[in-house]
């Protein structure tokens, strides 16, 4: 039987995504360059957006949901006076306006767009409508009417006004917020129309531009590899658990770690080390750590501490643990 293509490599590469390619394009390119069996990304950036794109390899793909849910920061330029079909500069002009709000006008509208809000996604988005992508329907001349969706926008700051036609904002937001929609709504709230002309993500969860590498900085040319470093990666990877640093840590013993890895549970009151946060049912996650090593995430379910998502399996402890998991101490029954 032929071996599946790719190496078993684990970790995060933080790419400073360039303008033009899609996020999936970049994942596929880097997966090929790293000869990796498995890869994915933590949060889509549009082709006309640049900046922090976390790319996960191997075990790191198990932590992608926690990056997708994490806080993100953006910097974008709002071009005033034209609305576009795509809500960015790629689309066709829909409407125009000669009105240009003042800086005070722009700042005055921001509080109503901050916090827990309802946001109408761009028609050109990947949302599914009747089994089809919204952007496919829009390109076919049948743009769907998308209902408002809950969104959390932590802060919006007007940072620069280069000229009357443009305004630069910085935004901190949660999962699923469309910056194109936000730019559109800022313009509408000020009595005009507008679209995003520049968009850059500066932070995604624990990753920011200080972690990011450009394509040019990644050693993609393997012709420089020698016999001694033939297995070297084109660029260094961050540890898998780097994505989880914002989640409180819970120290567990090897015995407790075995129980969690084998899919069994623990009474929180019996733990060697106490939980570092109030353990409300289903509301908290902890990084289960043996020493300095993260073995996975756990939470409280039905009054007991259980694995939410493990990064390690029984091989982490060795084959002898097959017998251990059958002992009464490791059983819920």
Layout of strands and helices, then pairs:
Elements: E1 11-17, H1 23-34, E2 39-41, E3 49-57, H2 64-68, E4 72-80, E5 82-84, E6 93-96, H3 103-109, E7 115-119, E8 128-129, E9 132-133, H4 134-139, E10 149-163, E11 166-173, H5 179-189, E12 194-204, E13 207-208, E14 249-251, H6 254-261, E15 286-290, E16 293-301, E17 304-310, H7 321-324
Radius of gyration: 24 Å
Distance between the termini: 41 Å
Could you tell me the number of beta strands? 17
The helix/strand order is EHEEHEEEHEEEHEEHEEEHEEEH
Give the uncertain stretches in residue-range form.
319-333
**What does the overall shape look like?**
globular
Q: What CATH architecture label of the largest domain applies?
A: 2-Layer Sandwich
Strand residues, percent? 25-35%
Helix share bin = 10-25%
Q: Structural class, please?
A: alpha+beta
CATH-defined superfamily of the largest domain: Pseudouridine synthase
Q: What does the average pLDDT come to?
A: 86
Main sheet characteristics: 9 strands, mixed
How would you explain this protein's 3D organization?
By secondary structure, this protein is α+β, with helices and mostly antiparallel strands. The chain has three domains: 11-69 and 207-240, Pseudouridine synthase; 72-204, 2-Layer Sandwich (Pseudouridine synthase); 247-330, Roll (Archaeosine Trna-guanine Transglycosylase, Chain: A, domain 4), CATH 2.30.130.10. The protein is 16% helix and 31% strand. It contains seven helices and 17 strands. It has helices spanning 23-34, 64-68, 103-109, 134-139, 179-189, 254-261, 321-324; strands at 11-17, 39-41, 49-57, 72-80, 82-84, 93-96, 115-119, 128-129, 132-133, 149-163, 166-173, 194-204, 207-208, 249-251, 286-290, 293-301, 304-310. Strands 1, 2, 3, 4, 7, 10, 11, 12 and 13 form a nine-stranded mixed beta sheet that branches. The protein has a four-stranded mixed beta sheet with strand order 14-15-16-17, covered by helices on one side. Strands 5-6 form a two-stranded antiparallel sheet. The longest helix has 12 residues, at 23-34. Residues 319-333 have low confidence and may be disordered. Residues 32-179 form the Pseudouridine synthase II N-terminal domain.
